[in-house]
Specification:
The chain is built from six helices and 18 strands. The protein is an alpha/beta fold.
């Protein structure tokens, strides 16, 4: 099976990521794998024309087709503290207040009839204390916990009744993960690599030299439809590493003919380089 691995649906408008998604839409690749879960993944996939059984969320180890349907959490159905009020301000920001004091900010899903996407609760000092994130179907996506405004922990449900994994953060870095079977991982990347290994032998394709390069299993294909040079006109340093390290997980690099000439001019080895179809 041939799969496209992307970091997040939030990057879907980037040229290289859009190209990769189109490879799935046209049948060149069989599935799309998401390294980062997204609370609106189902709606985004539908808007892109993807079939839900083609999109696999690595965090929850499930296809989008496995997620339940639902009508969502309507803003005025939100549970609030005693004497709490739901407020829609003149600038269309939404909030919850108690006795005139702001206790939470509320965000709606775009293009929805006031469906709640997230509720960010504040402590008495006005700092973020907790964040409840919902899917468009009304199911809980995640709960996040903060200290002094800094994210400490994310409990992911991704629409399921039981938590699917927990992320823990230190000094702004996500450096510890517990999965649904209580197995521990010293980084989110190691957890995601474990999930990918469980899927069996797959031909993985990536199109960005970012986090996906870190996750790439042995034999990965890197396609670079948007070129091989950075903003300064130099070959991407990560691409140089891929081409000069024979033991790198990426075994094939697909580029346009003009970009192959740029790599040749830069004196880089071309044994991994092939032309984009």
């Amino acid at each position: 099976m041939k799969v496209a691995l992307i970091n997040s649906f939030d990057e879907r408008n980037q040229q290289a990521v859009a190209w990769q998604i189109n490879q799935v839409l046209t049948g060149e690749l069989d599935e799309l794998w998401l390294a980062t879960p997204h609370e609106d993944a189902v709606q985004i996939a539908r808007d892109l024309g993807l079939e839900l059984h083609q999109v696999f969320d690595l965090c929850s180890q499930s296809y989008l087709a496995d997620q339940a349907d639902g009508e969502g959490v309507w803003f005025y159905d939100l549970k609030v503290p005693n004497q709490g009020q739901l407020v829609v301000n003149k600038d269309w920001t939404k909030s919850i207040s108690v006795a005139g004091h702001l206790v939470a900010d509320v965000r709606w899903f775009a293009n929805s009839n006031r469906l709640v996407q997230a509720v960010t609760w504040q402590n008495e000092g006005g700092q973020v204390d907790r964040k409840d994130i919902y899917q468009r179907n009304g199911r809980l996506f995640a709960k996040q916990y903060f200290s002094n405004g800094q994210l400490l922990q994310s409990d992911f449900y991704v629409g399921f009744d039981q938590m699917v994994c927990q992320d823990f953060y230190f000094q702004g870095m996500r450096n510890f993960v517990i999965d649904k079977n209580q197995r521990h991982y010293d980084s989110a990347e190691n957890y995601l690599k474990h999930v990918m290994e469980k899927q069996g032998s797959c031909d993985v394709h990536i199109s960005t030299v970012d986090r996906c390069l870190v996750l790439a299993p042995t034999g990965t294909t890197l396609a670079l439809p948007e070129g091989v040079l950075d903003d300064q006109g130099n070959v991407w340093p990560d691409l140089v590493m891929v081409l000069t390290n024979q033991n790198h997980a990426v075994s094939r690099v697909l580029v346009a003919e003009i970009d192959r000439e740029k790599l040749k001019k830069a004196g880089l080895p071309l044994d991994k380089v092939e032309l984009l179809a």
